[in-house]
Amino acid sequence: MTTPKGVIAAVAAGSLGERAGLQPGDRLLAINDQILRDVIDVQFYGAEELLDLAVEREGRQFWIEVERDYGEPLGLDFAHPTFDEEIRRCANNCDFCFVKQNARGMRRSLYVKDDDYRYSFLLGNFVTLTNLTGEDWARLEEQRLSPLYVSVHATDLALRRRFLAHSSAPDVMDQLRRLARLGIEVHTQVVLVPGLNDGPHLERTLQDLTGLFQAPVASIGVVPIGLTRFHRGGYRTFTPDESRGVLDQLDRWRQSSQEHLGCAFAHASDEWYLVAKREVPPAAAYDGFPQVENGVGMVRQLLDGWQTLRSKGSLLSARSATLVCGALIAPVLAQLVAEARALTGADLRLVPVINRFFGPLTTVSGLLAGQDVVAALRGRALGDLVVLPRAMFTGSYGAGSAPPGTTLDDMSIEELSEASGSPVAMASNMADLLQALV
């Protein structure tokens, strides 16, 4: 059943919304006579000092006048970020789209090919800009939704259309220039596919995007294609030697950018370094980590976070725990776990999990399925606690229909705990791990 538009899910204690008398279950319909389409409109039209809120409660509409201090938020959480609960569908047909590579029988939201610029602004999702309408461009101009996150893949128009399997896709360079005129900052990504947009094609893409540095392009993230066992497009992943070649190519651009632009600008995702068995760059090389949620710099943050914890010298724990991770990060985590074991005295064990749900080519921790974790832990002495990667669980918003703390195959933390016979905690870094052991 569709949730009514603009339903308030929670009101922060002491917030302007609470002082105005708003309650969970109320519908916020308009602000200053502006009909609200989503939480972006709430933020935009709710930025005035005097607000006239149109509210519906139990079928009755009324208005509330409130005055807000500059920068004061309303303090409202909504049942859905887009009030009509519709997410803009992707107009492309990429053979290697991850939605196409899902198993059958998963929850419906995992089969939605989303390409919604609103989620790009709100959540940092990457979009292709191939489905923007005139109304969308007018809204971008009015509300200056910045930054946006754009999947470029290739700047050559013919190649990009081939890449996206979209024969009428607009020229992304023209779109980026238009965003520059609107004053909108853009973070770009290039998903590399062997033999398709790598090598000289990547060289041109880097050159073209560098020409738009800060007007509007703020960063470039280069990530490798990801494939599951359900892939039917005939593509493959990069070999370790090829990964080293990509890193060498990017290193040349990074050095040139550092010299001419004052920043690295183009960044390789962590997977390249792990596959190539090369050390990730220092933190200073990541320009403030603008694409860490895209897997660019997570390993560096993990390593530096651990060194910071070690320097504090108060790492005491007598508890035992089993840590779970994907195969790709396992060599890095094995070293950190060994150091933590030596420093804390805790009995820590690391269990890398082979991804059988999506196939062994899927090696990242964020795509682990609960059933694979349960199988990997079966018959093991687990200690006091099992610690799982936070990335393998859903968050609070997502595209739609799984409760927070649910795996891709719909297992909750409670179900994982019951199946493993051990208490379960989530961790994103070593600090989370040590906190769980307290």
Report the major sheet.
Answer: 4 strands, antiparallel
Q: What is the domain total for the residues?
A: 3
Topology as a string of helices (H) and strands (E): EHEEHEEEHHEHHEHEHEHHEHEHEHEH
Strand content: 15-25%
**What is the number of helical segments per DSSP (H or I, 4+ residues)?**
14
What is the global morphology?
globular
The CATH topology of the largest domain is what?
pyruvate-formate lyase- activating enzyme
Segments where pLDDT lies below 50 for 5+ residues?
Answer: 396-401
CATH architecture of the largest domain: Alpha-Beta Horseshoe
Helix content: 25-40%
Q: Tell me the distance between the termini.
A: 43 Å
Q: Determine and state the CATH class of the largest domain.
A: Alpha Beta
- How many beta strands in the DSSP annotation? 14
Supply the helix-strand structural class: alpha/beta
| Rg over C-alpha atoms, rounded to the nearest angstrom | 23 Å
Topology, pairings included?
Layout: E1 8-11, H1 16-19, E2 27-31, E3 34-35, H2 39-45, E4 50-57, E5 60-67, E6 76-78, H3 117-123, H4 134-143, E7 148-151, H5 157-164, H6 172-181, E8 186-192, H7 200-210, E9 217-224, H8 240-260, E10 266-268, H9 270-276, H10 298-312, E11 320-326, H11 330-344, E12 347-353, H12 370-377, E13 385-389, H13 413-420, E14 424-427, H14 430-437
Parallel strand pairs: 7-8, 8-9, 9-10, 11-12, 11-13, 13-14
Antiparallel strand pairs: 1-6, 2-3, 2-4, 4-5
Helix pairs in contact: 8-9
